[in-house]
Amino acid sequence: MKIRAIEAIPLRYDVPEPYGSARGMSAARVTCLVRLESDEGLVGVGEAYGPPLVVAAQVRELAPLFLGQDPFDRERLWAEAVNGRYHWGRTGPHVGALSGIETACWDLMGRAVGRPVAKLLGGWNRDTVSVYGSTGYFTDAPDGFRRQVEQAAAEGLRRLKIKCGASLASDLERVDLAFAIAGDDLELLVDLNGNYTADLALRLCRELEGRRIVWLEEPLPSEDLNGYARVREGTTLPIASGEAEALRVGFRDLITRRLVDVVQPDVTSCGGLGEAKAIVQMAQTWNVRFAPHVWGGGVALAASLQLCAAVPLYPHAPLANREAAPLLFEYDRGPNALRDELLTTPFEVRGDRISIPSGPGLGVEVNWDTVERYRIDRA
Q: pTM for this structure?
């Protein structure tokens, strides 16, 4: 089997009400799909993070490396793309584009052998995974935060992640309101999107200790490794980070220096499914937990779920089929047609769990009519 065509498809969905994080708000959700076609007529799809038109151009730059090649030689092709373009950078659109191509190779391989990608990544470990709802975004609407948390709670989600990081007073107000709306049994994840310095993060940690906080996410910019060490040593709250990192070398210090309790690779930006699995294995080696960062469309969800299916339970063995610390899956609740309309069968959460597709490849089918509706590179 050979790859005979590679297509980059930039997409944009204009949201009804801008929303975002302490870093800023956006009026649209964007992504770039990567479509591979084999000489046998099979189609594999991946998703790449970054500015969609820029990422699409990067996909076209990388395409000659993969055209005419066997997707089962994915690892060699991936290494040539990374090592041969060292000066293009170790993060950003170049790696995002490669992530999309690499994930599409896995989808193509799975379809070729009639097995889900998780089986090829190492084996099937779970049929479902526990979710947390990402919500509580910043908006311009005075009641925007309340409406979002109320909706997520009404959906039955008992673990919620909210955006903070604007100020200590604002953070505590948002945390208190989330518990007031969802109840004291809420398990809350607090995301600062790297907007603080270590001293500010520690002040917030002191206020949050004793609350039902699952983890504090990205308290600092990813490059502030010494700051992460200071926060890690100064709080009992679990610390999570990794969405802004790429490739296993980007995660090395976070894991080996034990700067975080949970690493969060994103398959659309860290280098693809194979690199995400390598990052997870490195985390396992240092006994650090893993939870995927998932911010994208339906294909990104499908790929992230296949990764979760391929990750064995660690470090503990199950007792009475229960996990001491469950693997948690990010389920974004912001308006996003690229998530909700892109697949012929959209994902659904039942209770606090989402099912992992077991069909060939990523286990999902793309609605190409929807793709054309949101495509932005048409003349």
A: 0.96
